[in-house]
User: What shape does this take?
Amino acid sequence: MPAAVVNASPLVFLARLGKLEALGRFRQLYTTGVVLREVEEGLEGGHKEILGVRALVDAGKMKVRQVAAEPIPGIELDPGELTVIHLCRKERGALAVVDDLAAIKAARHFGIKVKSTPFVLLEDVAAGEITSGEFGVLLDRLMREGYFLAPAIYLELLAEAKAMRR
Assistant: This one.
């Protein structure tokens, strides 16, 4: 797997699912200071996701890079997404782990490969870490946590998982 730069949404959702270790498949794992601050803001609201994310950083499994959230003309993204794309452009070959459709499109515009949270989890099925049934349970939990998946994509993911591991 290539290196990856992870945005706040995948970090939060994977932490809520107890699946941050799914990011361990990447050769190197990065996030940005802006993204880390976005995740930390949730702690004030009682969301403890930052604790798992901080553990990744403290263990040296995820490196934090300081990147300016410089606007990209013609593209509307939040500061965390901007820094993820800028860092991916600096770390040639790094994949962006983002969930927002605008961020996915922007990354692809710059030739950056992308994975969203469900596709990170799908890698666990491919690696034999979880069964397709477990993947389905995680996908349902992800959606109960507020993740949006179009019905067609949801069904496609379940079918792909089932085809990988029975």
Notes: The mean pLDDT is 93.
